Structures are given as C-alpha cells and as structure tokens.
Fold this sequence. Notes:
It contains five helices and twelve strands. By secondary structure, it is an alpha+beta fold.
Amino acid sequence: MILSASLARHARACAIGMAFSLGAAATPAFGAGAIEQLKSFSSSTKSARGQFSQQLVKRSGQPGAAAKGEFAFSRPGRFRWEIQSPYQQLIVTDGSKLYFYDKDLKQVTVREAGDVISATPAAVLFGGAELDSAFTLKDEGEKDNLQWVEALPKVADSGFDRIRVGLRDGLPMQMEVQDAFGQVNRFTFTRISRNAAVTDSEFSFTPPPGVDVIR
C-alpha cells in the first residue's frame, strides 16, 4: 500500500497500498456478502483497468489533498497506478521491481515489488490469493448501496490500521484506508473494465534521462 517531501507524496499516492488478481468467473449472486464478493473478484479477475479519484480526510474530518487518475493490473503481480492531476506520479510494477516516478521532483524510487505489495492496501485489490493469510476479514453489511468488508492487517507495523472496501455486483466501488494517525484516504473507482486487454508495455518502466534514481 507505503519521510522526505517526496516520500510523503509517495505515501499518499500509494495509500491504496503500495500495493492488487481479478477475472472472468461468474459475478456473485445478488445479495452476496462483501467477503464473498471480494474473494470472487480476487480469484476470477485476471486483468482490469479503470479510473480512480482519491480524497484525503484528516483526523479532524476536514478534507485534505485530492487526486485522480487511471489504473490497470494483470495478475499475478503487475499493476499500474497513474495520478494525472493535480500532479503527475506513476507507480508501476512488472511483478519484480516497483517504480515510483514523481515527474515534478524528477525522481524515481526503485524497490523490490514483494517488499512493497505484500500485506498492503494494494494487495487487497490487486494481489493474489493471499487475502486470508495477510488480512483478517470482517463483513460489515450494507451502507450507501454498497456491501462493505473490513480488512485488518495481520502483520504489525504495516503503516495503516485498517482497510474498508465497498462492493457492488462483484466490483470494488470504494475503498478507505485509515492510517495510524487517524487520517483516511478514500478512493472511488469508476469505468472499471474487467478482464480488459492489457499489454506488457503498460507494466514496464525505464527512468527518463536526467532524473534521480533511488534504489
């Protein structure tokens, strides 16, 4: 899912984890619980693309930074998370290396993908079949026409306290990530294309000339 100025921005961009395997199986039956829908999405969606908006809510309840962009993933282990406004940042992994590119800062951070994705918010949506091993799941019922599931990390010092995912018709529509300071990053997902065609080039990255590379 995730501190110098660049890492703070990195954390906001990656609150969704730094961190996502979905496919063509049947959509859960009408009325299915949130845990069933989330597990079905994880096991049956091999690839997807869509758009997201992100809103930080401070502990006081006041709104903080907002952003929006596009995402794509292909299981296992490949995803692309691109913030397009109000600044430009890219998080992309081919399943081996994870790159975080901040265009304004002209900086690329490179990490081993497994070190970042495992047991993070990103793993809840874009990871493999490790949900039960990495998280304690709790069905929270229906609210705002969505079925909600809570995911609590089993690993200490994960960087966040809990995740809530709101699903409808077998697709994640919203996600909330609460950190240890009581702040909540709220994500809304739209235009989700399930099992969409994706290419290898979408998950590869070469640092542009002239940028600082931090490993």
